[in-house]
Design brief:
Elements: E1 9-13, H1 16-19, H2 38-41, H3 44-49, H4 51-65, H5 74-85, E2 90-94, H6 100-104, E3 109-111, E4 114-121, E5 127-129, E6 149-153, H7 163-172, E7 175-179, H8 191-199, E8 202-207, E9 219-222, H9 225-238
Parallel strand pairs: 1-2, 1-7, 2-3, 7-8, 8-9
Antiparallel strand pairs: 4-5, 4-6
Helix pairs in contact: 5-9, 7-8
The structure holds 2'-O-acetyl adenosine-5-diphosphoribose.
């Protein structure tokens, strides 16, 4: 594929990129949403009604993310290499709440669905690093309110973060690449249309299998991310 080497690139990642690092995806067999009603653990109403259930769901995920066997894989590292070596701008937008892109060294990164290792105080609105369990008695380190802390992830019914910056980047992108996402959740599932309609960008999907909106991409590469992503990126960088 030949695109100008100063062309701006936007990459979107989803849970599939972290699967080979040991973190479960959401949908499909053994997925995080299997046997769980999403609105009971990932919505503002659930947090109001049954905060213990919500805290417990995210405590388990935080503990898993922090276990020593969870590490970035070759796909995360390939994206860091792209950011470092591509002469144009590369914006990485992730739906993932894990920190594996940061651990691999990516810098120009937006967590549109928030971050599992951050807590937010609903009383004073401060956001801070939080690595231990959280419960209804947790104390805000900033304002000392009791029981006002929540995990800083975007729940269903809430607006994803930094959408103005993301939309602007999509409008100007010459290449949009979607990696490891099923295309079930908007607005991320609609990014391919924004990129292709605004600037006639090349649009590529890299996933284990065709996603729900696979037909909207110019091209798809299918297989495990730890193989397909480094392969795609090395071909892209070979063309500089
Ligand atoms: P999903 O679980 O919906 O989809 C993960 C995708 O990754 C699927 O299409 C799999 O085929 C693919 N996949 C699995 N293993 C892979 C591998 N080794 N290599 C490449 N692809 C692989 O996850 P997302 O699309 O990220 O939102 O889900 C989007 C949002 O839905 C999440 O951010 C979360 C969830 O509800 C919120 O919680 C707000």
């Amino acid at each position: 594929m030949k695109i100008s080497n100063t062309a701006p690139i936007v990459i979107l990642t989803g849970a599939g990129i972290s699967k080979e690092s040991g973190l479960d995806t959401f949908r499909g067999n053994g997925g995080l949403w299997e046997g769980i009603r999403v609105e009971e653990v990932a919505s503002p109403i659930a947090f109001q009604k049954t905060p213990d259930i919500v805290h417990s769901f995210y405590n388990k995920r935080r503990e898993r993310l922090l276990s020593p066997d969870i590490k970035p894989n070759a796909a995360h590292y390939a994206l860091e290499k792209l950011e470092k070596e591509w002469p144009g701008e590369v914006l990485l937008v992730t739906q993932n709440v894990d920190d594996l892109h940061e651990r691999a060294g990516s810098k120009n990164l937006i967590h549109m669905h928030g971050e599992l290792l951050n807590a937010r105080c609903v009383s004073c609105h401060h956001i801070f690093l939080w690595k231990k369990d959280m419960d209804t008695q947790s104390i805000c380190p900033n304002c000392t309110a009791v029981g006002a802390l929540r995990v800083n992830v975007v729940w269903f019914g809430e607006i994803p973060l930094m959408m103005d910056v993301i939309e602007n980047a999509l409008i100007n992108a010459a290449l949009f690449v979607s990696i490891g996402t099923s295309g079930n959740v908007y607005p991320a599932a609609g990014f391919v249309q924004v990129a292709s309609r605004s600037n006639d960008a090349r649009t590529i999907e890299i996933n284990l299998e065709p996603s729900l909106n696979a037909d909207q991409f110019s091209k798809g590469y299918y297989g495990p991310a730890s193989e397909t992503v480094p392969d795609f990126i090395s071909k892209l960088l070979d063309n500089i």
